[in-house]
Amino acid sequence: MPTISASDFLRMTRISFMDGLTVKRRSTIGLGILSRRKSGEKELVAGVGDYVTAMTIGIPQLETYNYAAKELKEYISNGKKAIKILEEDLDANNPYLFKEYLASGEEDRRAIEETLGGHKEAMRMRSKMSWYKWRHNFVSEMQLAADRETELLQQDLESLQAIGTQLTEPIPSLREQHAKLKAQLAAERAAVEAAKDCDPEIMSELKVGISEQSAQIESYKADIQSSTAKLEKLKLKLGEAETDKRALQDQIRDHQEKLDALHPTVEIVNLREEFNKLQRLHLWHAITLEEKLIELRYDDHYKVQMECVAFQPIPSGCRILVIPSKGKQVDEFPVLSELVLDLAQAMIRQVTDLNLKKVVRMLGRLWTSVSHLRCNLRLLAMKYPVTITRADSGFGFKTTARVRFPGAKGLAKIVFIAEEQHIRDWGKQLNTLGVDVDVIFGKLDRNLLVEVIRERLSDAIIEESYGLLLDACADAIACTEE
């Protein structure tokens, strides 16, 4: 009974789980809180109310969306790993459904395809129901938060109204006092006019009394100046005391922060757990983070050591080491491992304005591409003897597979020629992969085999790059049996 891989079975039954992902759908995101204006209107400056609304509604929504996005990324990553393990199990041991489908006729296959389509639609609707349920709960939680903030705003409005009432109550009494002062001023002016018509002797006596009062006033002014000078000195001393107080408070705050740092809090534990999740997600683990040395580990395979100046890596001080594998596991492709290590060192030396972010992004992308490449080579080596030889110059290599052709009773060497760009970005450079065929014996058309393999590589896309080299060899064998 022939066997079939899970991906080939899904392709034959036309059951795809990726359809509809790129279809445009209606937006569920509302207008920005600070940019709501009609077309044609001039741009308005956001008021305090808009900023308060943004801080109480927009920021919590943004934080919630960020948390949800991180959880979804982790969920998708775990799902991909589970699917990969399931596909490997299905490829190794085909279930009864695969065998029955291969052995069935056209009508039975159509019935099986319709049944699988129904199952797919049911699972899709169940996932959609879970999504709507989650979104409903999310909106409900946000509504509760909005209601709480609305209550707080209502309380603030009531407080402001009470303050306004308190300010309007003393206005009538102040107006009455103002009227009394005006009447008193008019009476004093009338008294002054009447005094002008008095007897000169009485006026001289009044002038003497005024001069005496002026002397007393000058004495009082001198006392006030002396008191003012004393007050200024006291204010200076008070300012110095306030400065000393703030300095002591800053010292107390610094010591309190250091004391809090010595004791793990809930926030620190949560941040550490989130940091560990991010490390597991991106396969990078920080070993040493110091001002002069940064040491990272990638997926328990590579160790990156960087000499730094103020946390700024030095290109000549960057070293990439291979972590020895545990147990008796042997490297299947040592030539490729050595080539990738040399390429990584060269890439770091070529970068200008090197920083930690560039190193992590560049090496992470390279090793992700190499993992996909190794997966294809591993599948090819499981079926055929494979030999990898490094190019004389540069960072290219050749993969030679000895393939038997039972239909033509022949043997040939199929050579896949990879350049530096294929190692750096395997998924996007599939159609430029070089191909050569060396016929050892048998009635084999070398040009036909090269054309069939190149045609298979030219049609390859990123989503179907798993097992590409093995499929190309299988197509070459199939063309000799027709």
Automatic annotation (TrEMBL):
Database matches in SMART domains: Spc7
Descriptive protein name: Spc7 kinetochore protein domain-containing protein
Presence of the UniProt keyword Coiled coil in the record: yes
Keywords: Coiled coil
Gene Ontology annotations for the cellular component aspect, listed alphabetically: kinetochore
Signal peptide as annotated in the record: none
InterPro entries for this protein: Knl1_RWD_C, Spc105/Spc7, Spc7_domain
Domain of life the protein comes from: Eukaryota
Residues of the Spc7 kinetochore protein domain: 1-307
GO BP annotations, alphabetical order: mitotic sister chromatid biorientation; mitotic spindle assembly checkpoint signaling; protein localization to kinetochore
Coiled coil: 217-258
Species for this entry: Rhizoctonia solani
Pfam family, one: Spc7
